[in-house]
Amino acid sequence: MVPANQTQFIEFLLMGFSEKPDQQGPLFGMFLGMYLVTVVGNLLIMLAIGSDSHLHTPMYFFLSNLSFVDICVVSTTVPKMLLSIFTQNKAILYTDCFAQMYFFIFFIVLDNFLLTAMAYDRFVAICHPLHYAAIMNPWLCGQLVLLSWTISFLNSLLQCLMVTRLSFCTDHEIQHFFCDLAEVLKLSCSDTLLNYVLLYFATGLLGILPLTGIIFSYTQIFSSILKVPSTWGKYKAFSTCGSHLSVVSLFYGTGFGIYLSSSATPSSWKSTVASAMYAVVTPMLNPFIYALRNKDIKDGLKRFIR
How far apart are CA 277 and CA 283, in angstroms? Predict the structure, then answer.
């Protein structure tokens, strides 16, 4: 992986948010708090769904998987960042960087597919309520989750295998708080054209297509809701997908925020903050959105706590 005619090294440097000593303490406390809130909040969602038979439905089956993936997303990046701040050591081994990059890509794509599966579930529930039990059976739900895991695994593996063919020179400072694929590619002295082609192709195929499916599902959902004669019926139908729509808006909103900030000012502090919103803040807010907007989850949490 490291050619003989290049300067050899076994680690990268994660530059993070700030090099000022007086800002390290507040950063450590803030991200430690967000990490604990994310893990505890999503874990409570999973335990409430698992322990309450009323929540053993396709919608909450996908939600429990989403909560698990959100825990994995923050656990991929935040613990290493906290350790770097605590020890004042920004170095990360090449193998550890590679693993972090692999799992981050894997879980982010999986998050995307699970949100798409949840949108399809809401589409069937509202647009085809009489056939819901027959369509969204346990076999189909399991197949959707298995397919999501498989595609995410293959995409992440392919992206990271393409990185192993690259060589790196003396510049090994990653202007980020974790090993982001796009930032790692910038440090390579090899030809990265194929890597960028694969990256953009996968982003379009695995990002835009699921988003298109979500938009189509909600277009049909809103069309069906408008046909409901009573105001209460419209409110009840919309309330069943309001939480999911909020999570989708947050996920894709922060995702587009990263793209726009990185395009405007590459490797900037704003781009790093946008990535933190996407990789840390969004998984933290998901359980709050479902806990505050979903009556079934509220009741399930109350029963679990009691």
Answer: 9
Predicted local confidence at residue 64, as pLDDT: 92
The backbone torsions φ and ψ at residue 102, rounded to the nearest 5 degrees and listed phi first, read: -60, -50
Rounded CA separation 213/120 (Å) = 8
Residue pair 217/122 in contact by the 8 Å Cβ criterion: yes
> For the chain, which residues make up each domain, given as ranges?
11-305
Q: What is the pTM of this model?
A: 0.88
In the block, tokens 């679990």 appear at 304
Give the Å distances, CA to CA, from 74 to 2, 100, 161, 273. 30, 11, 23, 15
User: What CATH class is the domain 11-305?
Assistant: mainly alpha
Strands (E), 15-151: 91-93
Cβ atoms within 10 A of the Cβ of 191, count? 9
**263 burial class (0-12, 13-18, 19+ CB within 10 angstroms)?**
exposed
Tell whether the model's pLDDT for residue 35 goes beyond 60.
yes
Tell me the per-residue pLDDT of 209-222, one tens digit each, with 9 for 90 and over.
999 999 999 999 88
Half-sphere exposure of 236 (CA within 13 A, CB side): 7
